[in-house]
Design brief:
Chains A, B: GO terms for molecular function: hydrolase activity. Chains A, B: It comes from Cellulomonas wangsupingiae. The structure is a homodimer. By secondary structure, chain A is of the alpha+beta class. Chain A folds into 3 domains: about 10-430, Alpha/alpha barrel (Glycosyltransferase), CATH 1.50.10; about 430-530, Immunoglobulin-like (Sandwich); about 535-640, no CATH class. In chain A, the strands form 4 sheets. In chain A, strands 3, 16, 17, 18, 19, 20, 21, 23, 24 and 25 form a 10-stranded antiparallel beta sheet that branches. Chain A has a 7-stranded antiparallel beta sheet with strand order 2-8-9-10-15-12-13. A 5-stranded mixed beta sheet of chain A has the order 1-6-7-11-14. In chain A, α2 (about 70-75) packs across α4 (about 110-125). Helices cover about 35% and strands about 15% of the residues of chain A. Chains A and B meet through α10, β16, β17 and β22 of A and α10, β16, β17 and β22 of B. β22 (about 605) of chain A pairs antiparallel with β16 of chain B.
C-alpha cells in the first residue's frame, strides 16, 4: 500500500494501464483496462503467462540467486554472495514490470502480494542516494559507473523505471514506483548537464524508460535526461570495444542514421526512445529520421518472421538483404523491441506498415519463444535448424543463447522475462482511438472500450478465430449518438479482403487501413481476410533465400520439420505448381527428397538436378516448431 | 654465430631446410635447398616476400612496440611499457621463422644479420629457468600459467620453438635455437607428467612445434610432452568459456572426433600435431581419425577457395554444408593451417585429395591475403563483399579482422607474419621422393633435387606458366642409371589431362596421381592440364550457393567485381548456356543486371524473374580481388 511519503502523482498517472502514452499522436493508445483479450491465440498466451510463465521466471530468478542478490546487498553480503551476470538485476525488474501489467490486467491478489514482496526486497538494496545495483560500488566491487560500456548499470535502472511506470499506470503510487523515482533522480543528478558523469550506457534502455517516467510524473528533468543520453550518443562517447562503436550505436547520432545497425536490441531500444523524445519535443526531424531508419530496416534487414539481427557475432543487424536463415539471430528481445518501436511509430504515423510489422513479429518471433507449456524459451529464433540438437533438461541453465530447443533459462536470460512483460501487456497493441473513432490493428477475441473525448465512448466486442479463420466480426456495444468511424487494418498480404457493414453489402478492402462508418449500438462490421496458405518469394537480393520459397498462412510463417518429412530437411525440394493444400486444419505442400551422394569435394561440374517423387507433407506454424522434440527445420524450402 | 654452449644437434638436424620431417612416411618431403622456385606465381610471391613483406611486418612489429616488449622485459620496464595483445610475442617468433626459412632459401646476409639481432633481443627476455613471455609472471602482471584458456603462453612458446626448428633446419645451432630449446625444456618441466601444471593451452600450437623439435633434436621428452598435451585435451581440461569447449577442441578428444569443429585455426593446428604424433608413435588409430576428420571437413566444411571457418563468431567451423559466402570467415591463418595439415597427410597417405586441397588453399586463400605491393593483408577472406567499404590508410592498424580491403596491420595480427613464414617455405609443398622416384604435387617453374637413397639422385627442371597455361614440362637434368619413376598429380578438376613421355605419345591421365617411367638425363615429360575456365556448381545441401554458379580456371577461383560490372554485384545474373569465354587473357561471362524495385517489404507473392540483357563481363582471379580499390564482389553468381 502507498506509504506516508507517497508521491504526488498527477491525476491521470494511472492512464488506464497504457504502457506508452505519448503527449501527442495521430492515434491515441488504449490501455489494459480498455482492451481485454477474451481468448484466442493471444488470450490463451496471456493465460499461460498468468498461470505458468511468470511463476516459472520468478522461480528461476530465485533459484539462481539473482533475486537473492538484493537480499545480499541489504545484508552486506556483497560481493561475496553475488550470483549471475552484470545485468541480472534487470531480470528482476522485468519480472516486476510483468507482474504490474498482469495485476493491472486481472487484479490477481496473490500476484499483487508477490509483487509487493519482491519490490520490498529490491527497495532494501537501494542506497540512500538512490543508486541501485548489486554489481557495482561496494568494497570489492568495481566503482559505480566505471564500466559504462559493459556494466549495464543504467540499463538495469532503466528496467527498474519501466517497472515503476507499469506499477504507477496500473495501480498508482507504490514502493517500486518510489524506488524507481529515487533511482531516476539519482541518474539525473549524476548524468545531468552539470553532473560528474557525462557518458551514456553501453546498452540503451534508460532513455525510453525516462521519457515514460516523465509522462507519468510530469517531471521534465526525466525528459531532459533522456534527451541528453540520446544526443550524447553517436559521437564516440563510449570507450573502444572489439565490436567497434556501431555495436552500441555510438558511431553516428540517431538523428543522422539511415538504417538500424549494430546490436539489434540496443538499436531498437534506442529507436523507441528517439520516437518518444521526438514526440515530446515536437522534434519532427528526429521522428522522420527514425521513421526512415525503420522503413529501411523493414525493407532490407528484417526476416520473414519479423525477426531482426542477422549476426550471432555482436547479436547485430547485418548488411542490407543479408538475412541468413541458418544463422538468423533474431533474438526474442529484438522482436519485442521491434514491436515497441513499430507500435510507437504506428501511433504517430498511422502507417499500416508498422502494425503489419507488429503482427508479424508477435506471431512469429515473440510467440515462438515460449514452449507450449510455458516453461522453456527460445533466445534466438533461427529460420533453419541444420542439426536436431538435444533437449535441454528442465533443471538446466543453457549456457548458450543459440540452443536448438527451447531452454528453461539462460546464463544471459533477458528473453524469458521480456516475454512475460510483453505478453502481460499485449492488449495495448490491439486498438487505438482518435476524436473520430476507433482503430483496430490486431485481431483477436476481445472487448475494446475507446474514449473518443468529450464523453463520446465506443465499446466493441470482437469475435474471431483469427488467424485460423479470416473472419473478424466487430459488434458495437456502445456508440456515440453523433456517429463515429471504425478503422480496420488490412494486412499487406490480404489481397482480396472484404469488409461488410451493417447494411450487409461487402466491399473490397485494400491493404492498409479501411475506414467505415461506425454502426450504432447493436450494429456489426465484418472483416474477411483471405488467410489461405500462400507461397512467398524473396527479393532477389536476399541471397539466403534464392531458389527457395516460404509458405505463409494469414500472419503465420510456416515451417517444414524433419519429424513431418521423415528425413532431414536438408534434402527437401518443394513443388510450387499449385497452391499449398489445406486439409483438416493442416497446410500441406508437395515435397520430394533429393538423393545426395557424398563426394570427397562438394563442388563440381555437374549442376544439381531436381527429384520427382513429391508427396504431400504437412507444415507447422513456425511459432510451434520443435514442439515435438529435436528436429531439423526450414522456413525457406528449396524449389525445383 | 653459435656460441660456446652450443647444442649437440644430431648430424642431420639441418635436413635440407625441410619444415616437416616425419620419421616415417609414404613419401619423403624435400627441403628448401632441394626445391627452388625459379619464377612464376609462387616464385614471384617469394620475391615479394623477400623484398617487401618481411620488411613490412618487421617494421610494423617494431613500430607498434611488440618487438620492444622484449627489450622492456630485459630492462625491467614491464608491465608498464607493454604494447599489444596477449599473443603479440608470437608475431615476433613467426617473423623469426620467416627470416630463418628465407635466409636458408637465399643466404641473404643482411636478413641473417637482422634475424640474429632480433633473436638476441628475444634471448635477453628469457628468464633463467627458460620461461619466456612479455605478458605474464612479473610483478603487476598475472602469474605464469594463470590463464591457460586465453593467455596464449604455450601458444607463443610453440611459435618460438617453430622459429628455432626453422633456424636449426636451415643453419644449425644458433641463439634462437637455444632459446627455443630452453623454453621447451621449461615447458616439459612444468607441464610434464609429474609437473605442477597438468593443463593445455587454449590455442593449440605448442604440440606441433614440440614434435618437430623432437625430430630436430632426437630428444624424446618433447615428443612425450606433445603427446601429453594432445591426449589431455578434449576432456574438459580447460575452464568454461562463453564459446563453449568446442571452441578450443576441449569437448572431445582428437582421437574420437569425426570432423573438425570450433575455432578453425585451433582445430587445424591440433590436427597437424595429431598427424605428427601418430606418425612418430606408429599410432595408426590416431592417424586414421585425423584422416577421417579432414576428409569430412573437405567434403562438408570447406569453401570453394579451400578456406575454412564459416562463422565470425568464434572464428569457427559451421555445421556440415553451412558455408555462407558473405560471412565466410576463412581466416588466412586457417588456410595456412589447412595447407600444413594436408601436406602432412599427403606425405602419409599419398592421396591426391590432400595435394588438391593444398593447391586450392594456397592459390585462393593464402595468396589472396597479401596485396599486390605486399604491404597490406586480408585477415578474413569473404566470398561475397556486399558493400565496397573503405580503403585502410597505409599507417592504420585495422581494429577489425573483417576489413573490406586489405589492411597494413591488425590489432590481432596473426595473419601477416603467418603469410611470410609460409611463403618463405613454399618450396616444401612442391615435391617429394620415395625409394622409386620423385612425386610432383604443385606445378611451378622450379628445380627439384630428389635423393632417392643409396646415392640415387634425380634432378629436374620444371618449365611452366601454370596456372595461366596448363602445360608443365619436366626436364630431367640427372637420373639414376637403373631407372626411376616420375609421379605427377592430376588435379581433380583436370578432366582430359594428358601426359606425354619421352617417346612423344600422349596418354590420358586420370585425376589423382599418374606414374610414368622416369626418363634418362635430358629426357622430358610433359603434362597438359585443361585449365580452361569452367562452371562450378555446389552440392544442393550447400544452401548458400543455391541458384548460383562459380567460375574456376585451373586451380583458380574467379570472382566478379563491381568495378568490372559497372554496378553493384547484388543485381548480377549470369547465363550458363555456353562455357565461359576466354579472350586476351581474360575470362568473361554473360551477365545481365536485374532491375530491382525497392519495396517496403522484401517478401511477397511474386516470384523473381530473370533479366535478359546479358553482356560479357570479365572476372578476376579471386586472389587478386579488391586490387583496384573498394568494390562489391561475388564468387558465386546467381543464375537465371
Amino acid at each position: 500500500m502507498p506509504s506516508s511519503d507517497s508521491l504526488d502523482l498527477p491525476f491521470d498517472a494511472h492512464a488506464h494501464g497504457r504502457p506508452v502514452v505519448p503527449s501527442r499522436s495521430r492515434w491515441r493508445p488504449l490501455g489494459l483496462d480498455e482492451v481485454t483479450l477474451t481468448g484466442g491465440f493471444w488470450g490463451d498466451l496471456q493465460s499461460l503467462n498468468a498461470s505458468t510463465m511468470i511463476d516459472h521466471v520468478e522461480g528461476w530468478l530465485e533459484r539462481l540467486g539473482w533475486t537473492g542478490n538484493f537480499d545480499a546487498a541489504a545484508q552486506g553480503r556483497l560481493p561475496l554472495d553475488r550470483q549471475g551476470r552484470e545485468f541480472s538485476d534487470s531480470e528482476i525488474y522485468k519480472l516486476l514490470e510483468a507482474m504490474a501489467w498482469e495485476t493491472g490486467r486481472t487484479g490477481d491478489v496473490d500476484l499483487d502480494r508477490r509483487l509487493r514482496a519482491l519490490a520490498a526486497r529490491v527497495a532494501a538494496a537501494q542506497e540512500p542516494d538512490g543508486y541501485i545495483s548489486t554489481m557495482f560500488g561496494r568494497s570489492g566491487q568495481r566503482p559505480r559507473w566505471s564500466d559504462l560500456e559493459w556494466g549495464h548499470e543504467l540499463y538495469c535502472i532503466g528496467h527498474l523505471v519501466q517497472a515503476g511506470v507499469a506499477r504507477a499506470r496500473t495501480y498508482g503510487d507504490d514502493e517500486i514506483v518510489r524506488v524507481a523515482v529515487r533511482a531516476a533522480d539519482h541518474v539525473c543528478d549524476v548524468f545531468g548537464v552539470d553532473g560528474p558523469q557525462q557518458g551514456v550506457c553501453g546498452h540503451p534502455e534508460i532513455e525510453v524508460a525516462l521519457v515514460e517516467l516523465y509522462r507519468v510524473t510530469g517531471e521534465r528533468r526525466y525528459l531532459d535526461q533522456a534527451r541528453l543520453f540520446v544526443e550524447r550518443r553517436g559521437h564516440g562517447v563510449l570507450g573502444e570495444i572489439d565490436f567497434g562503436p556501431t555495436y552500441f550505436q555510438d558511431d553516428v547520432p540517431v538523428r543522422d542514421a539511415t538504417v538500424l545497425a549494430g546490436h539489434a536490441v540496443r538499436a531498437l531500444y534506442l529507436a523507441a526512445a528517439a520516437v518518444d523524445l521526438a514526440v515530446e519535443d515536437d522534434d519532427d526531424e528526429l521522428l522522420e529520421a527514425v521513421v526512415g531508419q525503420v522503413r529501411t530496416t523493414l525493407a532490407r534487414r528484417t526476416y520473414l518472421t519479423g525477426g531482426m539481427g542477422a549476426h550471432h557475432e555482436g547479436e547485430s543487424f547485418g548488411a542490407d538483404f543479408e538475412l541468413p536463415s541458418d544463422r538468423s539471430y533474431s533474438e526474442t528481445c529484438a522482436g519485442i523491441a521491434s514491436a515497441m518501436v513499430n507500435h510507437r511509430l504506428l501511433l504517430q504515423t498511422g502507417d499500416a506498415l508498422h502494425a503489419d510489422a507488429v503482427e508479424r513479429v508477435l506471431y512469429n518471433v515473440v510467440a515462438t519463444s515460449p514452449a507450449q507449456d510455458g516453461k522453456a524459451f527460445y533466445y534466438t529464433n533461427t529460420l533453419h535448424q541444420r542439426t536436431p540438437g538435444r533437449e535441454v533438461a528442465p533443471d538446466e541453465v543453457s549456457p548458450r543463447a543459440a540452443s536448438s530447443l527451447r531452454a528453461p533459462f539462460f546464463a544471459v536470460s533477458c528473453c524469458p522475462t521480456n516475454v512475460t512483460r510483453t505478453v502481460a501487456s499485449l492488449g495495448a497493441y490491439v486498438a487505438s482511438v482518435d476524436d473520430e473513432g476507433v482503430q483496430l490493428h490486431q485481431y483477436a477475441p476481445a472487448t475494446v472500450r475507446g474514449d473518443l473525448g468529450d464523453g463520446r465512448v465506443v465499446e466493441l466486442e470482437i469475435a474471431t478465430s483469427y488467424p485460423d479463420d479470416g473472419r473478424v466480426a466487430v459488434r458495437v456495444l456502445r456508440a456515440p449518438a453523433d456517429g463515429w468511424t471504425l478503422t480496420l487494418r488490412v494486412p499487406s498480404w490480404a489481397d482480396g479482403a472484404r469488409v461488410t457493414g451493417p447494411d450487409g453489402a461487402p466491399s473490397v478492402a485494400a491493404a492498409g487501413y479501411v475506414a467505415v462508418p461506425g454502426p450504432a449500438q447493436g450494429g456489426q462490421v465484418v472483416l474477411d481476410l483471405p488467410v489461405a496458405a500462400r507461397w512467398t518469394w524473396g527479393d532477389p537480393r536476399v541471397d539466403a533465400v534464392r531458389g527457395q520459397v516460404a509458405v505463409e498462412r494469414g500472419p503465420l510463417v510456416l515451417a517444414l520439420e524433419s519429424v513431418d518429412l521423415g528425413d532431414d530437411v536438408a534434402t527437401a525440394v518443394v513443388s510450387t505448381d499449385a497452391p499449398p493444400v489445406e486439409r483438416d486444419g493442416q497446410v500441406l505442400v508437395p515435397v520430394a527428397r533429393r538423393d545426395v551422394a557424398d563426394a570427397s569435394w562438394p563442388f563440381g561440374a555437374e549442376r544439381p538436378t531436381a527429384p520427382s517423387d513429391a508427396r504431400l507433407v504437412p507444415l507447422v506454424p513456425y511459432h510451434a516448431w520443435a514442439g515435438r522434440g529435436p528436429a531439423t527445420m526450414r522456413v525457406w524450402l528449396p524449389v525445383e
